[in-house]
Amino acid sequence: MTKTVLLIEPTIRPIGVDYLTNNFNVVVAPNGLEETIIEYINEHKAHAVIIRTEKITKNILEQCPTLEVIGMHGVGLDTIDVPSATEHGVMVLNAPFSNYTSVAEHSIMSILALSRDLRVSDQKVRNNEWNHREVYFPMEINAKTLLIVGMGRVGQDLAKKAKAFNMNVLGFDPFLSESEMKLHGVVKIDNVNLHLPQCDFISLHAPLTKSTYHLFSYEQFDLMKESSFIINLGRGSLINEEALLDALVHKKIAGAALDVLEQEPPNSDNPLFKLENVILTPHFGGDTLEAKDRCSESIAKEVGLALQGQTSRNLVNLQVLGIARAFK
Questions:
Q1: Annotated catalytic residue: which of 219, 226, 242, 264?
Q2: Enclosing domain of residue 140
Q3: Is 73 known to be catalytic?
Q4: pTM for the full model?
């Protein structure tokens, strides 16, 4: 029996769609509303669904008995009820090897843009305020201190790129040892608050969990230097936005670059929009064309392996479902 895969508009790149259509039945839902996903899975007896930003809830899992596999086009899993999926015997896959270079490049871009006040400087020239060069003095990032919070693939690649700019790199990650960080030229720290006063840039790349929710709030911004910057390419709720707004308005820190926000898409009246010392992008740090192609091909093939009874190295709930083979 040929199995069926559900895609949801806007869906993955053609390279992934082509692989799926050549090997499986493929149906496409017009949107990612919960009721639409349930309708299409049940109507077409879909065995797998591949999502990008859509939510797979406990309700979907309870109402869709044919579902065997959930594929996440990306790394983050906060839109999937993984415990419920595991309870229902549904495999959850992601694509963790696809976009880390793109995210690290976006972080470097943010560091450079903040250090040169690029957003404001561009506007000054457009407004015929050439004299801006006499009143504002940008900073070098050479020999500055960067703290990377979350030393996974993105953090490790960012460290390599930052070292090329001769930055001093600190790393915070409870799951990576001091010796492992040293291999990347990074000094491991165990207490973020203790080191915040010495950091010029902080770049966030941690997953969103109960322990990382509002990891940066009023206390942390009070500890940072007035000349320091924060960059978030992890998840919006790693930062308490009210605390960040307070820090930016009262010049407790110099600026921020945010690719993620607590509410996405944000309300048009978000007060951060009014600030000149904030650079905002629409959660696309990992969405370069190259990364999207890699991610689409990867998740399509991994879902295919799972549907064919083979174990994927990207199976998130591998041990719990008891289908681990030779992978570690």
A1: 264
A2: 100-280
A3: no
A4: 0.85
